[in-house]
Amino acid sequence: MKIVLMEPLGISQETLSALSEKLTAEGHTFTAYDTVTTDTQELIERAGDAEVLIIANHPLPGDVIRADENLKMISVAFVGIDHVDVEACKEKGVLISNTGGYCNDAVAELAVGLTLDCLRNITAGDASVQAGGGKAGLQGHELAGKTVGIVGTGAIGCRTAEIFKVFGCKLIGYSRSEKPQAKELGIEYMSLKDVMAKADIVSVHTPLTPETRGLIGAEEIGAMKQGGILINTSRGPVVDTDALAAALKEGRIKAGTDVFEKDPPLPEDHPLLDVPNLVCTPHVGFDTRESIDRRAEMVFENITEWMNGTPVRKML
Fold this sequence. Notes:
Elements: E1 2-5, H1 13-24, E2 29-32, H2 40-47, E3 52-55, H3 62-67, E4 73-76, H4 86-92, E5 95-97, H5 104-120, H6 122-130, E6 147-151, H7 155-166, E7 170-174, H8 180-185, E8 188-189, H9 192-198, E9 201-204, H10 218-222, E10 228-232, H11 241-250, E11 253-257, E12 278-280, H12 289-307
Parallel strand pairs: 1-2, 1-3, 3-4, 4-5, 6-7, 6-9, 7-8, 9-10, 10-11, 11-12
C-alpha cells in the first residue's frame, strides 16, 4: 500500500524512520512531507493515489479526499477530526482513526497550571520583578478547598479532575452523559447553570461540535461567582470570546485560555488582546515532547491495526 504523511508530526527523523520502517519492511511505500501546506491543489498532489494518508491538525478538504480514488484510510495525529471533511469520507467509505488519549496528561497539567497562575499571579509577579517592582497587589489564593467545575467529563476532563482532587478540591461537573469514571473520582453531576454558579473554578474540556459551539456564553459567564476563574483548554469557539472579554474587563472573573477561534498569532483587534485578568498560551496544551512522540506511535499503530483488520480508535 501507498502511505503518505501529508505534514510533519513534530518528531525527530530518527523516530519517524523507526516507525515507518515497520511498514516498508512489509513492502508498503512511505512518503513523508516535512512542510505544511493549506493549498488544496498541492494537497491533492501530495496525496496522489495513496491508500492511506496521515495528517496532524491542518485541514484536509473534501476535494483532496475525493480526488484520491484509492483512499481507504486516514490516520489523524490529533484528538478532534473537525478539520477533516467527514462527509467526503462517508461518501467514499474512508475510515478515520484518531489519536485520542495521547495528550491527556499534557492538557490536564496545563489546565491546572493556568489555574495556579490565575490564583497566585505568577505571570503578573514575573512582570513585576522584571520591571523592578515588588509584591504589592499580588496577594493570591490557595487552590486547596476550592470547588472545581469540570465541563466535559471525557478522558481529559477526568484526568484534570484527578489532579485537582490531589490539591484538595471539591469536584462538580457537567456533561452530556454521566461517566462512571467521573463519579468514582467524586464528581457530582449537575446542570451547566449550577456548575457555573457554584464552582470557584470552571475548567472546560468539551469537543467542538454544533451543540458545544458557544456553550459558555454571556449567560453562563454571568452566572459565575465574583472572582471566579474560567479555564479553557478545549476549543476556542466553545467559549463566547466577546462575552469573556467583557467579563474580564469588568473585573468580575479571571481566565486562562490556551485556545482561540484560530491559533495565534492573533489579529491586532482580537477581543482577548490587552485585556486584564487573563493568562494566555498559544495552543500548547497538547504539545509536550512526551505527548508528541506518543501521538506518532499511535498514528502508525492505527495503520498497522487497520491493515490487520482490527482498527483501533476508529472515529468513522
